[in-house]
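FW: tagging you since you asked about this chain on Friday. Here's the raw sequence from the shared folder, copied in full. Didn't touch anything.
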Amino acid sequence: MTPLLHLKDITVAFGGQRLLDGAQLSVGAGDRLCLVGRNGSGKSTLLKIAAGLMEADGGTSFVQPGATVRYLAQEPDMSGYATTRDYVEAGLNPHEDPNRAFYLLGNLGLSGEENPATLSGGEARRAALARALAPRPDILLLDEPTNHLDVNAIEWLEGEIKSSRCALVLISHDRRFLENLSRVTVWLDRGKTHRLEKSFASFEAWRDEMLEKEETERHKLERRIAAEEDWVRYGVSGRRKRNVGRLDRLRSLRTERREQICVLGSVKMEAAEGSSSGTKVIDAKGVSFSYGEREIVRDFSLRIHRGDRIALVGPNGVGKTTLLKLLIGQLNPQKGNVKLGQGLLMAQLDQSRAALHPDQSLAAAVTDGSGDTVMVAGKPRHVMNYLQDFLFTPQQARTPVKVLSGGERARLLLAKLFATPSNFLVLDEPTNDLDLETLDLLEEVIADYPGTALLVSHDRDFLDRVATSIILAEGDGTFREYAGGYGDMLMQRGEKVPERPEIKKAPKSPAPKRARPGVPKMNFADLHALKTLPAKIAATEVAMAKLEKSLADSTLYARDPAGFARLSAELADLRTQKDADEERWLVLEMEREALEQE
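HL: got it, structure written out here
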């Protein structure tokens, strides 16, 4: 049978180096392929060639006449569209129902009325995903579709794709997503593709076997591999074998956490305080927090002990960030209290990567320019040796940060984070921009970390591999703790994660309702905030974009270190303000809809 899409002997070179060297890709009707490989291996380039958005230096590309191909762009161009709904409807075929755009946007957390010019990067990506799905194409090319999606949206997207007849080529760092959707795995390695006629669940063992065979052949041919290449190529496989012991340790930690939860729920709680003296990291009792009349966190209690790995899970917009700030002392509860342990040294993941100075070398970025030694787990390590743990070669350690790819910057930021003296890690979406090998590394480092970790993540497989317990947003301000990982939580609940509060607008706004006597109304301050917050949020996003553009200047830090630090602080403040304003607007909008329905 003739394939819908066929790429043969594709070559692409950049700066004299071949990124793709004879790569192949064949997609038939209904195929479900996942394309995997290290960051920088050329996966996105190959997908752009398949979408017809980029020309290869060599090879042939064939798309069956009449076949529709849709590609999820990493940076979508939404100029010329008044609303997100207009943008998505423009991608529909002429005969298709325009309400499909409304359906897709609603399930991806958008109303359809957003102004594309004021969207955040995550919102723009979700709108682009809706546009790619809208026409029910013959071939769907998705590059990291789960970025910026919560657990509910990820599971909805899985169901949407499974029910579709389209052929799929998928790039993702989300293992569970890959396992659930793929039937064929294409591995892109050193410019060449290798095809496995099985799902991603079988890929890692198959890849390790291929690498071992290759190494054996190299020894037979008396080839010598450089030490740093050997680490980058084979270190991951060796670590996975060592992780068997860590899995046993995780099971032990989950058993301990289950016992702690039982104690918290009994009358023995006060007696347990004495016995756990010196080991408590956070002790929260009866914590509540509201925005106006809407309860975000209600009567929440939690005790975190040294060594726990606690994950906050739930739909976007239900208050996970608010709860995180309450637990680490960045926000004061309106009721109840939070006590932080003595001698707590907190280290937080900087999602903006402002902590990385573009003109510094990788080694200087990790040591802050204070020599060639870092302290890790209380022991001195040479920075060159330490960076190899994070898959950087000694040659790379001397290069400036500005030459790194996005995934490499994320890896360097992790190296810097874990080299910072701490006993308490706060990780907000730590898996973003990480390839599968770096995810393996992150899981290993967290497993070996002697302190405590509090994290927010939507990556189900990652949660199963690292979390000792899950704190789930149940809705209406209620958060509940479940011992174990994400799968353990689902088994204990017997059902899926609660849906996020939907905020959808009708395709056409009906005539405004008149207030009925006796029906409660919103006060003036809330109505004013509901009306003005969108413009305020948009202005904040514009200001953030300007700061991000300034910080992207690789010469700024060298010219004006104080200015770089000032702009970084301003960006962090604006991001905090934007999060608070978005949360308040969401609460007020839900309250308005509830009052209209009474």
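FW: The first helix runs from residue 43 to 50.
HL: agreed, and The domain at 524-597 is CATH 1.10.287 (Helix Hairpins).
FW: great, closing this out.
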